[in-house]
Amino acid sequence: MLNTYEDFKKHLQNVGFMPLSHNKVGFPSLASLTMEEAWHTGEVNDPWIWRRLVAEEKLAAYGKFFDKKPSFITMEWFPYFLATRRGLTSVEELYARGKLSHAAKCLYELFKGPKEIPAHDIKPLLGRDMGKTEFDSALTELQMGMFLTMSGVAQKTNARGEPYGWPSVCLMKVEEWVGETVMDKAAGLDPFLARTEIIAKARDLSPDVSEKQLAKFLAV
């Protein structure tokens, strides 16, 4: 079991990628490797806090990467997923091919330049009405496509500047967050070979799950 943040960091560096929560294929997750009573305590060993810490320390990317659910990918393995899913294809190219929704394209256009935006500020910046389902789907689409990732958290404030509610995640363009080294490595990887490496690692971590199931779950 993972009892401390240090335990989690060491484990994550070893496995390379993992989902946050229990999942339909039984892939090892942070939830399955921690005690249920440790969650949402607000203490230093609360696994819910760890997701923010690894992103802020840039030890791993955190976002909706697997099965449209929150997951972790270390900086070592991030180029492999980039090469397999996205390659050098841009949002504009995907949209032109009909492989990206109009809502996702509109959201992505808000991130021009090196900036991070709290999730609760994205909708007001859009300048158009977008329902919650469409909005959430678009954000997930951009994370699954490896275009956006979590960069930290931000507290909501009211008109008087007073904090309220739960903090929400901040999002940033992947290339701005990971930097040139990771992007260059991804650009130099063969997508087929990158996928092969991902599947081989996944089979080591979850040998009882078929390759077909793993490929679908990991979106490779």
Supply database-style keywords.
220 residues, alpha+beta, three-stranded antiparallel β-sheet, 45% helix
**Radius of gyration of CA atoms, rounded to a whole number:** 17 Å
Number of beta-strand segments: 6
The end-to-end distance, rounded to whole angstroms, is 28 Å
Residue-averaged pLDDT: 92
Helix content: 40-55%
Number of domains: 1
Question: H/E series, N to C?
Answer: HEHEEHHHEHHEEHHHH
Main pleated-sheet profile = 3 strands, antiparallel
Outline the secondary-structure elements.
Blueprint: H1 5-15, E1 17-19, H2 47-56, E2 60-66, E3 69-74, H3 78-85, H4 91-96, H5 102-108, E4 116-118, H6 119-126, H7 132-144, E5 148-157, E6 163-173, H8 174-178, H9 180-187, H10 191-205, H11 211-218
Helix pairs in contact: 3-9, 3-10, 5-7
What do you see in this structure?
- It is a single chain.
- With 220 residues, the chain is of the alpha+beta class.
- The protein has one domain (5-214).
- It has eleven helices and six strands.
- The protein has helices at residues 5-15, 47-56, 78-85, 91-96, 102-108, 119-126, 132-144, 174-178, 180-187, 191-205, 211-218; strands spanning 17-19, 60-66, 69-74, 116-118, 148-157, 163-173.
- It has a three-stranded antiparallel β-sheet with strand order 1-3-2. The chain has a three-stranded antiparallel β-sheet with strand order 4-6-5.
- A hairpin with a 5-residue loop joins β5 and β6.
- α5 (102-108) packs across α7 (132-144).
- The protein starts with a helix and ends with a helix.
- The mean pLDDT is 92.
